[in-house]
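The record is given unchanged here:
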Amino acid sequence: MKNYRIALLFVVAVSFVGITQAVESTSIKAIVGGTVVDLDGNASIHNAVVVIEGERITAIGSAKDISVPDDARVIDATGSWLIPGLMNMHVHLGLVLPGKMEAELANETEGELVLRMAASAREILQAGVTSIRSPGNSWPPRAPGHEDLALTKAIAKGQAIGPRIFSSGEAIVITGGHGSKEGQTYSDGPFELMKATRKEISAGADWVKIMISGGIATEGGSIVGALMTPEEITAVIDVAHRFGAKVAAHSGSSAATNIAVDAGIDSIEHGYSLDRQVLRKMQKHGTWLVPTIVVTQPATQPFFEKIGSPDWYLKRRNSVGKEHWKALEMAIEEGVNIALGTDQLPSELNDGTTATAREAQYYVAAGMTPLQALRAATIEAARMLGADDSIGSLEAGKFADIVAVDQDPTKDIRALRNILFVMKGGEVYRDFQSK
């Protein structure tokens, strides 16, 4: 069954290559005429030249300092601003939300799931998001899972189209906890959770995802309840770190987050109801927050109505909206490390734009400068992943993951609403002429 599933994933992934080819595969390219945005707050580079050989940037600077190679394919970016490829750190490619969506996908086969995930990966890249983190392939978790790990390999080999994927495999669920089904047993106690952690890492995950509090999408129970014991949380983090993997914790609870931060958690997802005391502790420990604020705010209510979310879900979502917003404001005030994530597909339409762009707008409304919000969607996310040596900024030696927008995003973050051009690893996936 496992071999069949892997073969199916391969065949489906390859089929998408024929649908969305890169515009052109030329070894040397030069993007000219655009303005390169400086993420450190220094002056932008006007009339810039970015030289790309293969997958990586080899030179970047002003046209008066950088020569265009004679054999380069020249890409004219005049009038645009060049930024690193956007990054979204909370994406479930196999997401299924309660209500109409859940009913429609109730009998989804494994092959249909893979087709849906592959299509989403292609759309994500088209929306300017060149790297994602998958904190749980499917939501809610489903067996046998790990389809995103297979898709990750196919994309890395050039057999499928999509963003770079950093995955936690399948989320680890406790009995009665967020993501569990009534009457079913899951991993409980330190030893079972240690084994489950090793299982995900053995499957190829470089992150591990745990649920330390209640959540919106699980009916019943407190969203802010601390459901995992300190011993359970510590066991998962200890094992993961021994293998070089990082740990992300779904948490809407200050009490649960406080325990997790003391235990060395790497990132807190959502943070629906975090108080200032625990946020200060997160800042001190360097713990990351991935807010997913787009999920709970009024402007994105139409998305949930469109997918037919039931009343109980909408009530739970709305019940934490104000607290969630306050927690984000305080996190920004306290200087907590923040990486952008949406808990929706990055390309999903929300309030007239993508979930990724709307999330960044919320950060500015909550107190970030436009530059800080742009960093949260690029270099800060790369730092959280431990991948800032190769992605997250436009520098010689890094992967040529480049997006163009029509105005300066450090002046107005709404520039992310209009993506003009997308390059990932030196290949053009959306050109300036694309509609």
Notes: Residues 311-334 form the longest helix (24 residues). The domain at 28-84+391-430 is CATH 2.30.40.10 (Urease, subunit C; domain 1). The longest strand covers residues 56-62.
